[in-house]
Design brief:
- There is one protein chain.
- By secondary structure, the protein is an all-alpha fold.
- The protein has one domain: Rhodopsin 7-helix transmembrane proteins (Rhopdopsin 7-helix transmembrane proteins).
- It is built from 10 helices and 3 strands.
- The protein has a 3-stranded mixed β-sheet with strand order 2-1-3.
- The structure holds 2-acetamido-2-deoxy-beta-D-glucopyranose.
- This is Olfactory receptor.
Amino acid sequence: MPGKNQTVISRFILLGLPIPPEHQHLFYALFLAMYLTTVLGNLVIIVLIHLDSHLHTPMYLFLSNLSFTDLCFSTVTMPNFLQNMQSQVSSIPYAGCLAQMYFFLFFGDVESLLLVAMAYDRYVAICFPLHYTRIMSPNLCVSMVLLSWALTTLCAMLHTLLLTRLSFCKNNVIPHFFCDLSALLKLACSDIHINELMIMIIGALVVILPFLLIIVSYAHIVSSILKVPSTRGIHKVFSTCGSHLSVVSLFYGSVIVLYLCPSSNNSTVKDTVMSMMYTVVTPMLNPFIYSLRNRDMKEALKRVLQKKIKLSSNYGNYISDVFIK
Ligand SMILES: *[C@@H]1O[C@H](CO)[C@@H](O)[C@H](O)[C@H]1NC(C)=O
């Protein structure tokens, strides 16, 4: 509860990135291009997977979920950040800040849990290839997706509710480009011990535990390959797990560097650059990592485009028939 002699803060100021004014336009164009690439790349993946029936397998349905999450994850921060770069004073109302933080946590955690589901899918595909369709039933896949949404709703809600207990009195300047939980906690003028404790517990639950589960499933995959070493087996693992493994290392790499290796001298620049990494760069790269080296995706794109061309030429024939008659 704010005391009598304290002013209650109703807006926060987002400082954004420490970009010199003469480079402002260049960076604006760069971030706009990155955001548009993220939206377009992920939309293409979602549409492609839903249009092509060959891709209606658990792996690709999870990938489509991951693309949807990436799309939302960068939409939580990027449009607001781009708008703030254009305006002189970039303030955000208290409720807006809380909402941004909630959705940021929500989609970030969903991404983490989806990566576990995808690792489990690869584990079953490689270690139990004969039982794959029975184990990875549509029911199980839907339950895994629903469970990850339910869990992360709880976690994000808990963090947000705990934050509403705090009072902000003097400082309302956030040295970041979005309303980050840890940046907000630094501004609070009430006791934040419970918040920090919950960050550690929930962080362990939705970041460290998933990361360990992914490592365990890959350990199983590698040991099952080593039991029957063959170049075909190794090739298969690299082709189906390579993309997943790259996404996992990009995502957890930046999160772990950011939160588990706290900088000693409180360097906000390094923190901001690392959070740029997983809020902007990872969601942008995911579609490319998955589609560039993936033959199924390329063939699906070809099939869908061919169908489109056939449709439009049929439509053209129809139009000319109508006009000739
Ligand atoms: C997410 O995954 C579920 C289960 O595999 C699937 O039914 C659903 O269509 C997917 N959602 C999206 C947006 O791809």
